[in-house]
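Lab notebook, page 48
Experiment: co-folding of the full assembly
Goal: obtain a model of how the components sit together before planning crosslinking
Operator: M.T.
Materials (sequences as entered):
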Amino acid sequence: MTASSVVVTGLGVVSPNGLGTQGHWSASRVGKSAIGPLTRFDATPYPAKLAGEISGFAAEEHLPSRLMPQTDQVTRLSLVAADWALADAGVNPAELPAFDMGVITASSAGGFEFSQNELKSLWSKGGEYVSAYQSFAWFYAVNTGQISIRNGMKGPSGVVVTDQAGGLDAVAQARRQIRKGTSLVVAGAVDALLCSWGWVGLGTSGRLSTEEEPSRAYLPFDDRAAGHVPGEGGALLILESADSAHARGAEVYGEIAGYAATFDGREPGLRKAVELALADAGLAASDVDVVFADGAAEPELDRIEAEALVEVFGERGVPVTAPKTMTGRLYAGGAALDLATAFLAMEEGLIPPTVHTEPAERYGLDLVVSQPRAADVRTALVLARGHGGFNSAMVVRS
Amino acid sequence: MSRSTFTLDDLKRILLEGSGAPEGDGLDGDVLDTEFTDIGYDSLALLETSSRIEREYGIELDESVVGEATTPRAFIAAVTGHLTVAAA
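Observation: model returned without errors.
Model output:
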């Protein structure tokens, strides 16, 4: 880690496996799955019936009354995750110059349930019944905006929309801004689409598992793989320059050491993203202690990911895991949560497992299944792919 | 539903329903002449409030009300003016 490194000093986790970092990690480290039947609405008429829902989240216990009529579930989760991340980093934003702090999040869909309710009002009662807050509550950038307003952060901010690669792309964009001189950036992603309209939208991907037994529903790298289970949540991270973290005596989880993004062309771009991220980190494949896989659980996508990993690391050359088998895929939030989980894995020296999967031999992966694996984890590679050809890879080091 | 009077209590109720309670003293005490921004409501909260008043009272407020009525007293006067027109 050098003085110009970009480091992570705080984590804010809102996961189906637990609210808060400790809750999420204590469940994930032992392979506890949060996937179960959808309860948020009646899923009976829909082909997919399972989800990774966040339970026990009472937004009004965490947020002021003024924010409630103007926020979707995803924004409430994002605001609380940001509060927790800042507290974890020991940062009080009111004490810092407004223009030295930024917010960069990713979003795959914005505030869906809020929009669903307003569209219902529009078509059943008329335009005069649509909330004025619909003007921004639906928007991809709304989480960034609300976090910025709540914490008085007026530095470089934005939103990245690259489907499920977004969780990494947002953190990479935050790293760029810190390198250009911003002291602190709240970065990452939370998504929450578990309403009937969101469900219909997700279903159009053709990638949702229609299995009704949770232990058979989301099985990446398994011969039975037949789609994924959607979940809600994600993570926000506090990024700072190593210099400024050191200056204020902050505890550091680790460094954002390397990153690359590619787009699928004639050939899948995932392997190239891995190679470029390693090069960006100045590391060799043999330096990587664990890979957090994208784990699409689509046979073709699993094959592409497994081939990329075998080509870069060799057959069974590196431990691979997909903790998202416990939460479902959280869309943009998924890779951000994987980043947080990677730092927690480093802290404890334990790789959380891929649950329920029986890995197909032909993939040639050393998949950490069933049980967590004790390991000295100093360097982790996190992979994420978005619908339409997005590939992102990020290397983090303790 | 059309009604003939619009009071500070009506305004407070509709603000709370549509935009939530501001932090601090907010709507407590004598706020008739306090700027909405000082109470804790921005222009969007007033837009939402005027939309709810239109629905509840069956009136149509001029768009200028939201921009020009920056205190509860001015807002109530503007709404009352419309109620009078509607009743006439």
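Interpretation: The mean pLDDT of chain A is 97.
Next step: discuss with group before ordering constructs.
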